[in-house]
Amino acid sequence: MDQTYFRRGFGLKKEIEPLLAAEYHSALVEELRAEGHVRSFGDLTIRLAEAFGFCYGVDRAVDYAYQTTVKFPDRRIFLVGEIIHNPHVNKRLQDAGVTFLYPGKDGHFDFAMLQPNDVVILPAFGVTMHDFDVLKGIGCVLVDTTCGSVLNVWKRVESYAKDRFTALIHGKYFHEETRATASQVNTHGGGTYIVVRDMAEVRLVCDYIEQNPGALSKAEFQAHFREKSSADFDPDVDLVRVGVANQTTMLASESLAIAAEVGKSMTRRYGAAELSEHFRSFDTICSATQERQDAVLKMMQEPPDIMIVIGGYNSSNTNHLAHLCREYTTAYHIADATCIDAEAGTIRHKAELAADAPEVSTGDWLSPGPISLGLTAGASTPNNKIGETIERILATRSLVLGGAALAPQSPA
Fold it and tell me: Model's pTM, two decimal places?
């Protein structure tokens, strides 16, 4: 049995449970959940989405990371990238003695400082096949927290490569998960991939497949997708057989629409009778991502006056939740409770979906009078950050939670 590779933890869950409960749980959030996800404080009604915060994959990754610090107290422990995209969780692991390894400007990691006796944690997003092989070659102890939903996508991409289908991946080409997923085509020599960010990029691919008027030339196509495709990608060859996959944290409805669009394009190019020889698509959408998006859509059947979305600004699934909310109501994507200044009555938030969108400040965001306020959080946001946000919102209305929660009123 390989004693340098671990994927099922170390049986130390009971030892770390008190620490995880103290650092990440919230009694207030649990009270709200038990009361049907809604509670009124004066004329302010708080509504909590039915699915929010830590998903199973994130919970498991954090659990295993803490188990690792207990299992190897006298060894150097490293983490490839970030365990998840939440600054508070990552900071707590750094405080626990875990050293974070970040990629260079070229996106590649330098593992030169690692030694065989070191312990290396692989994040929930996974790592590329190249990085995994390098780490195995060094002889480090590897603790693999890669999410099961991500592994399911990898299996699909591997099957595409085996059957000589190009993997068309809906995702962000610079994201750790997408980079790791794309690398799975290397399981079989000559595998190819192309990453599309949105429907606009998909149309570039579909126009080329169909050779529509205005389609990019081969040179233009290769230039546009140079950083988003496998080496020496040849659209004349590599777009003849295509299988669709996705980064698990993308907007589910968009991933499904993209798959449908590529399927239609292949049908127009090759005919319905030959479609199976040129196109494949399977549902690789993460169930937790879907559940959180579905919970927001359910809430938007009767939209709250304001929606607060809590989570790291570099968290893909959190950004997509915020984007979804903005289609129905006023929505603020905040990193945590500190973004709300109760005294000044301002809120700092990320107002756009783009990864590099700046943080902006809005004043008088919580108007007086009866108001309903909805909350949700990305899959990498712990409950304590949700609870702290609720307390800060109440403080903005001069409603303070004491030793016990402020006595609730019946929802309006």
Answer: 0.90
